[in-house]
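Lab notebook, bench 4. The sequencing result for the construct came back, and we need a structural model before the next group meeting so we can plan mutations. Quick request posted to the team channel:

Model the 3D structure of this chain.
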Amino acid sequence: MNLASRAHRGRVLAFCALGLIALSALLVGLWRPWAPLPEAAPIGAGDEPIVVEPAPLVLPEHPLVLVFGDSWTYGSAAAPYTQGYAYQLGGMLGGESVVKGVRGSGYLKPGLDGPAFGARIAALNPGIDPDLVIIQGSINDRLQGATGYREAVNAAWDALSALYPDAPIVVLGPAPHELPVGEGTARIDVDLAELAAARGWWYISPIERDWITPDNYLDIIDVEVGRKHPSTEGHRYLAEKVATALAEFGGEAATEPVGSETGPEQ
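Done. Here's the predicted structure in C-alpha cell form:
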C-alpha cells in the first residue's frame, strides 16, 4: 500500500469515528439517563367517585329497625312525637322501630339534647341487634362548611358498621326544610351519596327523588308551630316514601304502623 492509499484510508476511518461519536451523542440526548422516569398514575386515581354496587336488601318478616338521626327522626312537630316517620316506619315494614333522634345534631354539629353523630354512635347499645339500620340527615351541618365533613362522616359510619356488623345500613340523606334547596344542604346530599356509594350502601336522597316540592311543601312542612319540621301528616308521608324506597332495594313495604319499641333519645 503506497503513501496516498494510507492517507485516504486514514481520512475514511476518521470520518467514521466522528460519525459514531455524533450518533452516540444523539442517542444519549434522547435517552437522558440522568432525567427522572415519569411516574405512573396510581390505579384508581382520577376525579371519578368510587361506586360499589349495593347488595339487595333482604329483611326478615318482622324486622327490628334502628333509625338514627336528628330532629326529623326525633319526631319534631308530630303530634305526638311518636307519630314521627321513624316510629311509623318499623310498622310499615311489618316490624318495629328503635328510634334514636337528637334535635339539632349532625356529623359536625352537637345537638340540643346530645353530642354530634360520632359520639352518639359510640354511646349506642351494641345489644340492640337490629335487622336494619337507617342513619338519617342532617341539614344541621349545612352551615358548618365542607372542611372535615367527609372525615367525620366516614368515622361515624366506621363506628356504626363495627357496632352492628351484621345489619345492612341505609343512608337517608337530608330532606329540605325550605325551598329552594340551600347550597349547604345540596352539598351534604352529594357528599353522603358519594360516600355511601363507595361503601356499597344504599342511599336515599329526598332531594333527588323530589319528595318535597313547591306543590306539596305546605302539606308536608309545618312552617308555623313546627318551625319548618314535618307535620304529623308530613311524617307519615315521609315514612311511606322511605318504606317504598326500601322496597325498591329488595325489602318489603307494608302499609300500617304497629308501634315502636323505644322513645327518642334525650
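The radius of gyration is 31 Å.
Will bring this to the meeting.
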